[in-house]
Task: inverse folding
């Protein structure tokens, strides 16, 4: 192990490593008991990591389901969480009819449960495409941005109009620092996002 900060659970394997490190007297370790309030989060993350390693090394889909269902049975004994087939519910949308605005069938490339840093690198999702998909799939938008520019607003205008038509709230926090935010963009934005 190298010198540095860690947040690793002390497993049997890590304990053996620490015993060897303590004998060398080159490093001093700092091990503390996990607070009872933090234990569910820390321990579940450990189980998740172990499950991910096992499921990644198992190529047979039926075997993967057997492993997952076996773990679920051990954890809560309920059959409500048992998987029959690895599928996910991706959306529920209201059926278009008079008074109900149809939503586009778009979704962000980044899964909702993941955080992502969008860099506009080649082969990666573009910031514009991800923002458009996020706006089209949102029930409300809380946006914190450094500045608002006319060109950027024009790229998102159709999605902002659809957001307004759905009656979804839009809140924006920006700044006028160094004059980067354009007045014409703010005026257009307020017109685009005003209730229909």
Result:
């Amino acid at each position: 192990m190298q010198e540095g900060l860690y947040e690793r659970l002390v497993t049997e394997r890590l304990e053996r490593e620490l015993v060897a490190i303590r004998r060398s007297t080159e490093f001093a370790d700092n091990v503390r008991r996990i607070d009872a309030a933090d234990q569910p989060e820390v321990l579940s993350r450990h189980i998740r990591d172990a499950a991910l390693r096992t499921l990644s090394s198992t190529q047979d889909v039926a075997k993967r389901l057997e492993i997952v269902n076996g773990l679920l049975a051990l954890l809560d004994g309920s059959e409500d969480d048992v998987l029959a087939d690895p599928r996910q519910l991706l959306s529920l949308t209201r059926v278009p009819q008079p008074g109900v605005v149809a939503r586009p069938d778009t979704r962000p490339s980044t899964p909702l449960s993941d955080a992502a840093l969008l860099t506009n690198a080649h082969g990666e999702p573009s910031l514009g495409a991800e923002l458009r998909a996020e706006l089209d799939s949102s029930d409300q938008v809380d946006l914190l941005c450094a500045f608002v520019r006319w060109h950027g607003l024009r790229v998102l205008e159709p999605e902002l109009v659809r957001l307004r038509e759905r009656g979804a709230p839009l809140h924006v926090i920006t700044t006028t620092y160094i004059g980067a935010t354009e007045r014409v963009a703010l005026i257009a934005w307020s017109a685009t996002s005003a209730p229909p």
Q: What stands out?
A: The mean pLDDT is 86. The radius of gyration is 25 Å.
